[in-house]
Prior knowledge:
Elements: E1 2-4, H1 7-14, E2 21-25, H2 31-42, E3 47-51, H3 71-80, E4 85-87, H4 91-94, H5 107-110, H6 114-117, H7 121-136, E5 140-144, H8 148-160, E6 166-170, H9 190-195, H10 197-211, H11 217-230, E7 233-242, E8 255-263, E9 266-274
Parallel strand pairs: 1-4, 2-3, 2-5, 3-4, 5-6
Antiparallel strand pairs: 7-8, 8-9
Helix pairs in contact: 7-8, 10-11
Residues 24-26, 54, 57, 125, 128-129, 147, 150 line the site of pantoate.
Amino acid sequence: MKVIERIADLRAALAPHDSAALVPTMGNLHAGHLSLVRIAAERGHPVIASIFVNRLQFGPSEDFERYPRTFERDVELLEGAGCDYVFAPTESQLYPEPQVCFVQPRATLADTLEGRFRPGFFVGVCTVVLKLFNAVQPRVAVFGKKDYQQLLVVRDMVAQLALPIDILAGETVREGGGLALSSRNAYLDERERAEAPRLSAVLQRIEQSVRSGSTDWARLEADAAANLAAHGWQVDYVAIRRGADLGAPRAGTPLVALGAAKLGGTRLIDNREIVDPAR
Ligand code: PAF
C-alpha cells in the first residue's frame, strides 16, 4: 500500500489502472470505515482511501481543531483492510488558495436536518468530495449510511453533475449496545458512553412502531426527543422522513428515522431505515 500526498503523484500512480474505487474519510478510522474499504475492494478496482479533515465543512464553533487525528494507526488499519493507496493531501494540496468556487447542493436535501443545524456543512462536504473525485477520478465511491443525509446529498450531486461514478452505500456498523461507530465517540467519557446507545434505541423504537402500523409521525418524533431530553441529551432533531428524498413521511413508502443530539459536549447522529413500513 502506498501513501500519497500530492494530487500529481496520485494521478501518476493511478495512470496504469483503468478504474479506481474511492473511500473518502476524515481519518480516525474504525470498523465502519474498514467495512467501506471492503465494499470498495469487492468491485475489483484498486482501492484508494482518502484521509483529509476538511476545514470547509466545520462551522466556526465546531470541532475542527480537536477532531481526532490518528494518521499512523489509520494507515495500518487501511493496509490490513486491503486498501491499495492512501491519499492524504495536505491542506495546501486541496486548497492551494482560498476556496471561492463551491458546490451548492439541492436545498430540499441539504438545508434540512443536519443542514439546518450545521449551515454550510453540505456545501463544504460536496465541494471537497468533488475535489477528491476530480483528483482520483474513481469509477465507484463508497459512503456510509451512518451519514444518511450526506449519502443522499452526494448521490444527488453526482446525478446533477453527470459524474460517471457509482455511489455505493455501506451499512452502519454498531457496538453491541447499538451505538453507531463514529469518530466522535472518542469524545465521550465513561458515563456518556454508557448513555450513548439511547440515541439508536429511540430510533429503533420508532422503526418498530412504524412497522406495527403507527403513522402518528409527530407523536413518535416527540416521544423519542422527550426520552432523550429526560436523560440529559440536548436534542437538535428527531425526524421521520421519506428514505429516498427526506420529504415528509407517507405511509407505505420507505422511510428513515433520523436523530441528532448532544450528550455533554459531543454531538452524535444516527438513523434507522424503515424499508417495509407496515411489516
Ligand atoms: O463523512 C466524512 O467523513 C466526510 O464528510 C467526507 C465524506 C470524508 C468529506 O470530508
